[in-house]
Amino acid sequence: MRALFIVNPQATTTTPRSRDVLVGAIAREMELDVAQTEYRDHARELAQQAAAEGYELVISLGGDGTVNEIVNGLLATPEGLQRPSFAALPGGSANVFVRALGLPADPIEATGAVLEAARAGERRSVGLGRLRSDTDDRYFTFCAGFGWDADVVHEVDRMRRSGRRASPGLYISTALKLFLRGDVSVPSLRIEAPGHEPVHDLYFALATNTTPWTYAGAVPVQPTPRSRFGLGLDVFALTQVRTVRTAQLLRQMLSHRGVPPYGPGYVSWHDKSAVQITSRTPRAFQIDGEYLGHRKRVNLESVPKALRIVG
Protein backbone atom coordinates (compact mmCIF):
# COMPACT_ATOMS: atom_id res chain seq x y z
CA MET A 1 0.00 0.00 0.00
CA ARG A 2 1.23 3.48 -0.88
CA ALA A 3 0.46 6.13 1.74
CA LEU A 4 0.94 9.88 2.19
CA PHE A 5 1.55 11.01 5.77
CA ILE A 6 0.53 14.69 6.18
CA VAL A 7 2.04 16.16 9.33
CA ASN A 8 1.23 19.49 10.95
CA PRO A 9 4.58 20.45 12.54
CA GLN A 10 2.72 22.78 14.91
CA ALA A 11 0.69 19.88 16.37
CA THR A 12 0.47 20.62 20.07
CA THR A 13 0.81 17.12 21.55
CA THR A 14 3.75 15.73 19.58
CA THR A 15 7.46 16.47 19.26
CA PRO A 16 9.86 15.98 16.32
CA ARG A 17 11.23 12.88 18.03
CA SER A 18 7.81 11.33 18.59
CA ARG A 19 6.83 12.12 14.99
CA ASP A 20 9.95 10.29 13.80
CA VAL A 21 8.89 7.26 15.83
CA LEU A 22 5.45 7.28 14.17
CA VAL A 23 6.96 7.65 10.70
CA GLY A 24 9.30 4.72 11.34
CA ALA A 25 6.48 2.49 12.55
CA ILE A 26 4.25 3.26 9.56
CA ALA A 27 7.08 3.00 7.01
CA ARG A 28 7.78 -0.58 8.15
CA GLU A 29 4.24 -1.54 7.09
CA MET A 30 3.73 0.36 3.81
CA GLU A 31 5.39 2.54 1.20
CA LEU A 32 5.29 5.97 2.86
CA ASP A 33 5.91 9.54 1.82
CA VAL A 34 5.83 12.37 4.38
CA ALA A 35 4.72 15.95 3.77
CA GLN A 36 4.70 18.75 6.35
CA THR A 37 2.13 21.52 6.14
CA GLU A 38 3.57 25.01 5.71
CA TYR A 39 0.51 27.27 5.63
CA ARG A 40 -3.24 27.32 6.12
CA ASP A 41 -5.08 24.99 3.70
CA HIS A 42 -1.83 23.29 2.66
CA ALA A 43 -3.13 19.96 4.03
CA ARG A 44 -6.20 20.35 1.83
CA GLU A 45 -4.06 20.90 -1.26
CA LEU A 46 -1.86 17.88 -0.48
CA ALA A 47 -4.88 15.63 0.07
CA GLN A 48 -6.55 16.79 -3.11
CA GLN A 49 -3.40 15.86 -5.10
CA ALA A 50 -3.05 12.44 -3.42
CA ALA A 51 -5.27 10.47 -5.79
CA ALA A 52 -3.57 11.83 -8.91
CA GLU A 53 -0.20 10.84 -7.43
CA GLY A 54 -1.30 7.25 -6.86
CA TYR A 55 -1.74 7.17 -3.08
CA GLU A 56 -4.20 4.64 -1.67
CA LEU A 57 -4.19 6.05 1.86
CA VAL A 58 -3.75 9.49 3.41
CA ILE A 59 -2.74 9.64 7.07
CA SER A 60 -2.88 12.83 9.14
CA LEU A 61 -1.06 13.91 12.28
CA GLY A 62 -2.53 17.09 13.69
CA GLY A 63 -5.61 18.52 15.33
CA ASP A 64 -9.18 18.77 14.11
CA GLY A 65 -8.30 21.68 11.83
CA THR A 66 -5.79 19.52 9.96
CA VAL A 67 -8.34 16.71 9.75
CA ASN A 68 -10.94 19.09 8.32
CA GLU A 69 -8.56 20.37 5.65
CA ILE A 70 -7.60 16.84 4.58
CA VAL A 71 -11.20 15.62 4.49
CA ASN A 72 -12.16 18.55 2.26
CA GLY A 73 -9.18 17.83 0.02
CA LEU A 74 -10.10 14.16 -0.30
CA LEU A 75 -13.73 15.00 -1.10
CA ALA A 76 -12.44 17.19 -3.94
CA THR A 77 -10.81 14.19 -5.68
CA PRO A 78 -11.47 14.63 -9.42
CA GLU A 79 -13.98 12.32 -11.06
CA GLY A 80 -12.40 9.26 -12.60
CA LEU A 81 -9.79 8.89 -9.85
CA GLN A 82 -10.04 6.51 -6.92
CA ARG A 83 -10.32 8.55 -3.71
CA PRO A 84 -7.76 7.42 -1.11
CA SER A 85 -8.89 6.11 2.25
CA PHE A 86 -8.16 8.23 5.33
CA ALA A 87 -6.59 7.53 8.71
CA ALA A 88 -6.32 10.23 11.38
CA LEU A 89 -3.82 10.25 14.24
CA PRO A 90 -4.23 12.59 17.24
CA GLY A 91 -1.87 15.56 17.40
CA GLY A 92 -4.03 18.45 18.60
CA SER A 93 -5.45 19.63 21.91
CA ALA A 94 -8.91 18.03 21.53
CA ASN A 95 -8.80 15.49 18.66
CA VAL A 96 -12.58 15.18 18.64
CA PHE A 97 -12.86 13.35 15.31
CA VAL A 98 -10.14 10.82 16.13
CA ARG A 99 -11.60 10.02 19.53
CA ALA A 100 -15.15 9.87 18.18
CA LEU A 101 -13.92 7.16 15.82
CA GLY A 102 -12.94 5.16 18.90
CA LEU A 103 -9.18 5.52 18.44
CA PRO A 104 -6.88 6.05 21.43
CA ALA A 105 -5.96 9.62 22.38
CA ASP A 106 -2.26 8.66 22.50
CA PRO A 107 -0.61 9.02 19.04
CA ILE A 108 1.49 5.85 19.40
CA GLU A 109 -1.48 3.74 20.51
CA ALA A 110 -3.62 5.22 17.73
CA THR A 111 -0.91 4.40 15.19
CA GLY A 112 -0.92 0.81 16.37
CA ALA A 113 -4.70 0.61 15.94
CA VAL A 114 -4.53 2.09 12.42
CA LEU A 115 -1.75 -0.30 11.35
CA GLU A 116 -3.65 -3.26 12.72
CA ALA A 117 -6.73 -2.24 10.73
CA ALA A 118 -4.62 -1.71 7.59
CA ARG A 119 -3.08 -5.18 7.91
CA ALA A 120 -6.53 -6.73 8.22
CA GLY A 121 -7.87 -4.73 5.26
CA GLU A 122 -10.53 -3.17 7.47
CA ARG A 123 -12.36 -0.13 6.12
CA ARG A 124 -15.49 1.66 7.30
CA SER A 125 -17.50 4.47 5.79
CA VAL A 126 -18.58 7.48 7.83
CA GLY A 127 -21.05 10.23 7.05
CA LEU A 128 -20.09 13.89 7.09
CA GLY A 129 -21.84 17.20 7.38
CA ARG A 130 -21.73 19.72 4.56
CA LEU A 131 -21.94 23.49 4.85
CA ARG A 132 -23.46 25.52 2.07
CA SER A 133 -23.79 29.29 2.25
CA ASP A 134 -23.32 32.33 0.05
CA THR A 135 -19.59 32.16 0.73
CA ASP A 136 -18.85 28.50 1.62
CA ASP A 137 -19.09 24.94 0.39
CA ARG A 138 -17.24 22.80 2.90
CA TYR A 139 -17.54 19.50 4.72
CA PHE A 140 -17.31 19.11 8.47
CA THR A 141 -16.57 15.97 10.44
CA PHE A 142 -18.25 16.52 13.81
CA CYS A 143 -19.86 19.93 14.39
CA ALA A 144 -20.96 23.32 13.12
CA GLY A 145 -21.80 26.05 15.62
CA PHE A 146 -23.51 29.43 15.40
CA GLY A 147 -23.01 31.87 18.27
CA TRP A 148 -21.41 31.08 21.62
CA ASP A 149 -19.03 28.26 20.69
CA ALA A 150 -17.90 30.12 17.57
CA ASP A 151 -17.26 33.23 19.68
CA VAL A 152 -15.06 31.05 21.91
CA VAL A 153 -13.14 29.64 18.93
CA HIS A 154 -12.67 33.15 17.53
CA GLU A 155 -11.34 34.50 20.83
CA VAL A 156 -9.00 31.53 21.37
CA ASP A 157 -7.66 31.95 17.84
CA ARG A 158 -6.89 35.57 18.67
CA MET A 159 -5.04 34.55 21.83
CA ARG A 160 -3.10 31.85 19.98
CA ARG A 161 -1.85 34.44 17.51
CA SER A 162 -0.56 36.35 20.53
CA GLY A 163 1.41 33.31 21.72
CA ARG A 164 -1.07 31.53 24.02
CA ARG A 165 -1.14 27.75 23.79
CA ALA A 166 -4.52 26.19 23.05
CA SER A 167 -5.73 23.84 25.80
CA PRO A 168 -9.05 22.58 27.15
CA GLY A 169 -8.64 24.93 30.10
CA LEU A 170 -8.26 27.94 27.82
CA TYR A 171 -11.44 27.07 25.90
CA ILE A 172 -13.41 26.54 29.12
CA SER A 173 -12.24 29.76 30.76
CA THR A 174 -12.95 31.71 27.56
CA ALA A 175 -16.47 30.26 27.31
CA LEU A 176 -17.17 31.24 30.92
CA LYS A 177 -15.77 34.74 30.40
CA LEU A 178 -17.95 35.36 27.34
CA PHE A 179 -21.05 34.04 29.13
CA LEU A 180 -20.55 36.22 32.21
CA ARG A 181 -19.79 39.23 30.03
CA GLY A 182 -23.18 38.83 28.35
CA ASP A 183 -21.87 38.07 24.86
CA VAL A 184 -24.27 35.11 24.59
CA SER A 185 -27.43 37.06 25.44
CA VAL A 186 -28.56 37.90 21.88
CA PRO A 187 -31.59 35.79 20.79
CA SER A 188 -31.09 36.38 17.07
CA LEU A 189 -31.05 32.82 15.72
CA ARG A 190 -33.67 30.73 13.95
CA ILE A 191 -33.47 27.03 13.01
CA GLU A 192 -35.57 24.94 10.68
CA ALA A 193 -35.39 21.36 9.43
CA PRO A 194 -37.68 18.91 7.62
CA GLY A 195 -40.46 17.67 9.89
CA HIS A 196 -40.27 20.57 12.34
CA GLU A 197 -41.77 24.02 12.67
CA PRO A 198 -39.10 26.73 12.65
CA VAL A 199 -37.92 27.89 16.08
CA HIS A 200 -37.04 31.55 16.60
CA ASP A 201 -35.25 33.69 19.19
CA LEU A 202 -32.43 31.27 19.93
CA TYR A 203 -29.21 32.28 21.67
CA PHE A 204 -26.91 29.55 20.38
CA ALA A 205 -27.32 26.75 17.82
CA LEU A 206 -25.23 23.69 17.12
CA ALA A 207 -25.42 20.92 14.51
CA THR A 208 -23.47 17.72 15.14
CA ASN A 209 -22.44 14.77 13.02
CA THR A 210 -21.40 12.58 15.95
CA THR A 211 -20.99 12.72 19.71
CA PRO A 212 -19.29 14.28 21.57
CA TRP A 213 -19.45 17.90 20.51
CA THR A 214 -16.06 18.45 22.13
CA TYR A 215 -13.99 17.35 25.13
CA ALA A 216 -13.27 19.03 28.44
CA GLY A 217 -9.91 17.36 28.90
CA ALA A 218 -10.72 13.65 28.95
CA VAL A 219 -14.45 14.21 29.56
CA PRO A 220 -16.80 14.13 26.54
CA VAL A 221 -19.23 17.07 26.28
CA GLN A 222 -22.53 15.74 24.90
CA PRO A 223 -25.40 18.12 24.07
CA THR A 224 -26.51 15.62 21.37
CA PRO A 225 -25.68 12.17 22.78
CA ARG A 226 -27.69 10.29 20.10
CA SER A 227 -25.69 11.78 17.20
CA ARG A 228 -23.77 9.20 15.13
CA PHE A 229 -21.58 9.12 12.01
CA GLY A 230 -24.07 6.73 10.43
CA LEU A 231 -27.10 9.00 10.90
CA GLY A 232 -28.13 12.49 9.82
CA LEU A 233 -27.36 15.69 11.71
CA ASP A 234 -28.50 16.41 15.26
CA VAL A 235 -29.36 19.92 16.44
CA PHE A 236 -29.10 21.56 19.85
CA ALA A 237 -30.13 25.17 20.49
CA LEU A 238 -30.57 27.33 23.60
CA THR A 239 -33.92 29.04 24.08
CA GLN A 240 -32.81 30.77 27.29
CA VAL A 241 -29.51 31.73 28.92
CA ARG A 242 -30.44 31.99 32.58
CA THR A 243 -27.34 31.29 34.63
CA VAL A 244 -28.82 28.50 36.80
CA ARG A 245 -30.44 26.64 33.89
CA THR A 246 -27.36 26.98 31.69
CA ALA A 247 -25.21 25.57 34.50
CA GLN A 248 -27.63 22.63 34.82
CA LEU A 249 -27.39 21.94 31.09
CA LEU A 250 -23.59 22.07 31.18
CA ARG A 251 -23.60 19.50 34.00
CA GLN A 252 -25.86 17.28 31.91
CA MET A 253 -23.58 17.67 28.90
CA LEU A 254 -20.67 16.44 31.03
CA SER A 255 -22.61 13.44 32.33
CA HIS A 256 -22.39 9.95 30.86
CA ARG A 257 -25.89 10.19 29.37
CA GLY A 258 -25.61 13.74 28.07
CA VAL A 259 -28.56 16.11 27.60
CA PRO A 260 -31.98 14.40 27.27
CA PRO A 261 -33.91 14.80 23.98
CA TYR A 262 -36.50 17.11 25.61
CA GLY A 263 -36.37 19.66 28.41
CA PRO A 264 -36.74 23.33 29.38
CA GLY A 265 -34.33 25.91 28.04
CA TYR A 266 -33.33 24.16 24.83
CA VAL A 267 -34.44 22.53 21.57
CA SER A 268 -32.99 19.22 20.40
CA TRP A 269 -33.65 17.50 17.04
CA HIS A 270 -32.30 14.12 15.97
CA ASP A 271 -31.19 12.59 12.65
CA LYS A 272 -32.01 15.40 10.21
CA SER A 273 -31.07 15.30 6.51
CA ALA A 274 -30.74 19.09 6.39
CA VAL A 275 -30.78 22.08 8.74
CA GLN A 276 -30.90 25.80 8.06
CA ILE A 277 -29.73 28.31 10.66
CA THR A 278 -30.25 32.03 10.17
CA SER A 279 -29.55 35.12 12.26
CA ARG A 280 -31.09 38.59 12.22
CA THR A 281 -27.59 40.02 12.64
CA PRO A 282 -24.21 38.52 11.67
CA ARG A 283 -23.00 36.04 14.30
CA ALA A 284 -19.77 34.07 14.68
CA PHE A 285 -19.78 30.68 12.96
CA GLN A 286 -17.41 27.70 13.20
CA ILE A 287 -17.00 24.19 11.84
CA ASP A 288 -14.84 21.53 13.51
CA GLY A 289 -13.40 24.14 15.85
CA GLU A 290 -12.37 26.53 13.06
CA TYR A 291 -13.78 30.06 13.01
CA LEU A 292 -15.12 30.91 9.54
CA GLY A 293 -16.22 34.47 10.18
CA HIS A 294 -19.61 36.02 10.89
CA ARG A 295 -22.64 34.76 8.97
CA LYS A 296 -26.35 35.50 8.71
CA ARG A 297 -27.38 32.18 7.15
CA VAL A 298 -25.92 28.70 6.70
CA ASN A 299 -27.41 25.60 5.13
CA LEU A 300 -26.17 22.30 6.55
CA GLU A 301 -26.82 18.84 5.16
CA SER A 302 -25.92 15.26 5.97
CA VAL A 303 -23.78 13.34 3.46
CA PRO A 304 -24.03 9.59 4.22
CA LYS A 305 -21.04 7.28 3.73
CA ALA A 306 -18.92 10.13 2.43
CA LEU A 307 -15.47 8.91 3.48
CA ARG A 308 -13.63 5.57 3.84
CA ILE A 309 -11.75 5.32 7.14
CA VAL A 310 -8.92 3.01 8.19
CA GLY A 311 -8.82 2.55 11.96
From TrEMBL:
GO terms for cellular component: plasma membrane. This is Diacylglycerol kinase. Its EC number is 2.7.1.107. It is an enzyme of class 2 (transferase). Keywords: Kinase, Transferase. Residues 1-135 form the DAGKc domain. Coiled coil: none annotated. Belongs to the diacylglycerol/lipid kinase family. Its cofactor is Mg(2+). Transmembrane segments: none annotated. Pfam families: DAGK_cat (PF00781). GO terms for molecular function: ATP-dependent diacylglycerol kinase activity. The keyword Kinase applies. InterPro entries: ATP-NAD_kinase_N, Diacylglycerol_kinase_cat_dom, Lipid_Phosphate_FormReg, NAD/diacylglycerol_kinase_sf.
